[in-house]
Design goal:
With 134 residues, this protein is mainly β. It has no helices and 9 strands. Strands 1, 2, 3, 6 and 7 form a 5-stranded antiparallel β-sheet that branches. It is globular.
């Protein structure tokens, strides 16, 4: 006889990581994508990078959407993590997907840090654009 577990309505699941313990982990895999807020965004030639934040996980990631038509040039988005003195501690990147699609990076976490997102082009055809820090 096989046992099957069926979640009851209103059941909540704890996030699989918290703060810096979420560094370089996937937001969907670790259950951090359920309570998402967009904290900052930046548009660089129709490539939109959003700083997505999970309060449950105390971690963020960058989601990039490609609205360029046509999308001729390769680009990527980054999430950057800074300490209180303004020193860059870590950065993660995700390549911009094809036109009309979105993709996201792994997370960086911790409430005592500052974060921003940026969009860069591989061939330096357009200047780097970044959001303000949050």
């Amino acid at each position: 006889m096989a046992l099957t577990m069926i979640p009851l309505g209103g059941t909540s699941y704890a996030a699989g990581c918290s703060g810096s313990g979420c560094d370089n982990k996937g937001p969907v895999t670790y259950g951090c994508d359920g309570d998402v807020t967009t904290m900052r965004s930046v548009d660089n030639n129709s490539r939109v990078a959003e700083l997505r934040w999970s309060a449950d996980c105390t971690a963020g990631w960058v989601r990039v959407t490609n609205n360029a038509n046509p999308s001729q040039y390769a680009s990527y988005a980054t999430i950057e993590k800074y300490d209180g003195s303004g020193n860059l501690l870590r950065s993660l990147r995700v390549d911009t997907p094809t036109t009309g699609q979105s993709d996201w990076s792994n997370m960086l976490g911790g409430s005592q840090y500052y974060y921003r997102v940026c969009v860069r082009f591989d061939a330096d055809l357009y200047p780097l654009k970044c959001s303000s820090k949050w």
